[in-house]
Amino acid sequence: MSAATSLAAGLLAGLTRLITGVRARWVCTAPSTAARVYFANHASHLDTLVIWASLPKALRTRVRPVAAADYWGKSRLRRWLATEVLNALLVERSGGSGSREALHSLVTTLKAGDSLILFPEGTRGDGSAVGALRPGLYFVAEQCPDVELIPVHLHNLSRILPKGELLPVPIMGSATFGAPMHLRPGEHRDSFLNRARAAILDLGEGQ
Ligand SMILES: CCCCCCCCCCCCCCCC(=O)OC[C@@H](O)COP(=O)(O)O
């Protein structure tokens, strides 16, 4: 990492903490150096930053956000922020052969020992509900059965920086990390995806 990207990464992590008050709660799990998939509800550009800034600094360089290539590859600034500062993997989200390549790069990354941050809804919602999960998480779980899948519930971040806004409103947000899940033997795709979505929602109960 160059001095400029490392400075930008430090600034982004510090700003994220300042703006969101980022309270990370670890429920039935703790930070780990093992390759993991952190999967969360998605409604704000802050989501990735909050999960990333919640991890101990030493783990941050080993966790790779999965980012939509059509959005984060669009301008030089976005590409730099995503791929250089946050070490994101750019993937196609349009389906077809792009999905096969995306799955391959996710699995290769996990097998190399790095973790992923994944937003299985595939797009930002308005923060009022968690949408249906796309099947990528299931295929990753199938191909990497030993990797811990950690549900994360992000609270309030879409009120701080909603989709389409550029200036954040400083109010408190939080990230709740839940117990690791795995694909169960013989578990059907839709059952697994419903269980994963329910795991995110359960962590947000009472907030
Ligand atoms: C306003 C300034 C905010 C600066 C934020 C810098 C954050 C860099 C984050 C880079 C990696 C982000 C990966 C997020 C996952 C993802 O790619 O979700 C899709 C949305 O993103 C855009 O698609 P959409 O919600 O459909 O508009």
UniProtKB/TrEMBL annotation:
InterPro entries per the UniProt record, alphabetical: Plipid/glycerol_acylTrfase
GO MF entry, a single one: 1-acylglycerol-3-phosphate O-acyltransferase activity
Residue span, Phospholipid/glycerol acyltransferase domain: 36-157
Pathway: Lipid metabolism
SMART domains: PlsC
Pfam family, one: Acyltransferase
Biological process, per Gene Ontology: phosphatidic acid biosynthetic process
Keyword vocabulary terms for this entry: Acyltransferase, Transferase
Name of this chain's protein: 1-acyl-sn-glycerol-3-phosphate acyltransferase
